[in-house]
Amino acid sequence: MWRYIFQRLLLLVPTLLGILAVTFAVIQFVPGGPVEQMVQQLTQTGAGGETAAAGGMLKSGGRLSAEDMAALNALYGFDKPPLTRFIEMVGRFVRFDLGESFFHHQTVFELVKEKMPVSMSLGLWTFFLTYFICIPLGIAKAVRDGSRFDVVSGAVVLVGYTVPPFVLGLVLLVFFGGGSFFAWFPQGGLVGDDWETLGTAAKIKDYLWHMALPVTASVAGNLAVMTVLTKNVFLEEIRRQYVYTARAKGLPERQILWKHVFRNAMIPLVTGFPAAFIGAFFTGSLLIETLFSLDGLGLLSYEAVMKRDYPVVMGTLYVFTLMGLLAKLLSDISYSWVDPRIHFGGQK
């Protein structure tokens, strides 16, 4: 096992470098980079007869000189060859120095730290509620396969799956967020404006009240996949020969389900926990965050791509990719933890 873990950690390095290299190479050819955007901004400012400053460089009139362009390229680090910039970037990433944003005037680490609570709240609530609802519901549907409960619950879950989370969120806002019907929930934000003045119990209530609608919209889209997966896995185990043998021996149905079927059926579900947990922790939903005015990582990533804020793009990519690769390793290791019969590297 330890040999396998060591090999996977060694493989993680070239994988991570390959992802960074491909992304870095692609963004070199994307038009409208930060230099072009600054040139456009300075030109528009100069068209109004004003003088603009960028990094100590003054610009007057309607055109930039060659010296000004060289200063702009040096300001954003584009005065060096791409390979040199890539090597320097990787060297900083090894020290977990993610660089500084071109437009936010903050380090990438500070930006991620600032936006993280929003995405954590949305992602973790979605993760836990999805699993806490889907696993019991999937088990109940498997045990009652073909019954009226199975048909009705399947129809409800399917409706929730077919409606996009953004559309469902919009409907929830219209009906319950002070739209045309009821004003039971706030329209957006992580907490209220008076949150700092509230007591502990009131803060918790205010936070949960603000998260109710966006979490509901996020969870609804995830229910169908996990519920159907849980049902199918349990149905497959229930129809195995060892279940018929246990019934023939006179074991109670409850004991068969929870002592034998449950353990075997949970293997493919539990092994997906690490990746799903990390994904929910770090991945924000752009549409949900925009709809409910949640300034999280999803919105940050979108703005970074649109503004060509390369340090934010590459820094967040590095962190998320590293965590994703580690989560995949944990998923593989969890197979052996859940089922001791599984070994890696040919070990017995």
From TrEMBL:
Q: How does it sit in the membrane?
A: Multi-pass membrane protein
A Pfam family assignment: BPD_transp_1
Family classification: Belongs to the binding-protein-dependent transport system permease family.
Q: Which domain of life is it from?
A: Bacteria
Keyword Transferase recorded: no
What's the protein called, per UniProt? Microcin ABC transporter permease
Q: Which residues form the ABC transmembrane type-1 domain?
A: 116-331
